[in-house]
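Bump. Still looking for Saccharopine dehydrogenase-like oxidoreductase structure tokens.
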Amino acid sequence: MRPYELVVFGASGFTGQFVVEEVARAAAGGELRGAPRWAVAGRSREKLRAVLERAAERLGKAALGTEVGVLLCDVGDAASLAAMARQTRLVLNCVGPYRFFGEPVVAACVENGANCIDISGEPQFLEEMYLKYNEKAAEKGVYIIGSCGFDTIPADMGVLYTRDKLKGTLTAVESFLTVKSGPEGSCVHDGTWKSAVYGLADQDNLRKLRKKIGYAPVPVVGAKLKKRGFLFYNREFKEYSIPFMGADVSVVKRSQRYLYTELQETPVQYSAYVNIGSLGSAIKLMFAGFLFLLLVKFSFGRKLLTKYPEFFSAGRFSKKGPTQKQMDGTSFTMTFFGEGYSEGQDPQNGKPNVKICTEVKGPEPGYVATPIAMVQAAVALLEDAACLPKQGGVYSPGAAFSKTKLIDRLNKCGVEFSVISKPEV
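Sorry for the wait, here they are.
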């Protein structure tokens, strides 16, 4: 009997405004049954109303109507967070960096019986929430699902899609990310930059956290997936590649662990890489990367990095974020190369004898694909509730949505999953 189906928290933030627009689009398109009431939440009523006006204008409407509420809420005010959580079935949390601002929202949602989805790409936050709140969320029947944006729905659901399209047993996957931009170039808001700065600075604590959690080991099924070097020439794409530094690998591993331990499904080994272009581009990136890794180790270095993101990222990150033209001209493709064993073949004996290539492609990753992924994850949680894990808890996307229609929903909204080459023995 809660007044709202979902609330977008941090709606007037840079990413939040695009999530609001996507929620409005989904509601207008009938993706949520009935006439769903939803709300925006944040600190400033004026800014929240401006975001709703912008969303209405983008959708060609005079206004979004009375079904959309406005809630005043501050991440530093626990009472306001509790009041928000009590009024909705689901909170879409857009307030980052999550290592600083995420936990109070999770705590309020668990305590007050609201589900919560975020778009964090910060493994330490995601796994710390699992340690602290998994059991409480299970008791309350609440689903807390992290990394439901570009980090890491394309990767996590892409591995599951590849598995389901292989006739046999998939045992290993490598993914390669390519981001293409138009003549205006591409840019990322500095909120993501800050998350990367503080995340890489805190790697030691992430290792300690994982020891504390005591994850059950996941067996290697089939031939062991070989790790590639830090920089290598990729013959499939005819350009240089490096390991992807985002949360994809850690989140996919959590999903595979859950699917193995809880559903007895064969675990898939996974490595993620990003294509970076020519040798010249690779050398420039390596130099910038070494400087970045050096500076994050020191307090003054982190201050410099967060104060001057444009300088230290060669214009790739900025406090203003991308322009509309930059977003319109940018797209991504994530290509998955999978290998495994054909039907009737024992994965514990012999070499893999079947391969498959799949692809996930979509619009600009940070502020077009991410809102699509987050909102469709929300729709899946609300509409495919019978297909979610039987009990609440803190889940990765693959663990939560493996049995839902999330991939079908994403396909209809422009984040497309497809088979590039059929399984071949």
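The chain has a mean pLDDT of 94.

Edit: fixed formatting.
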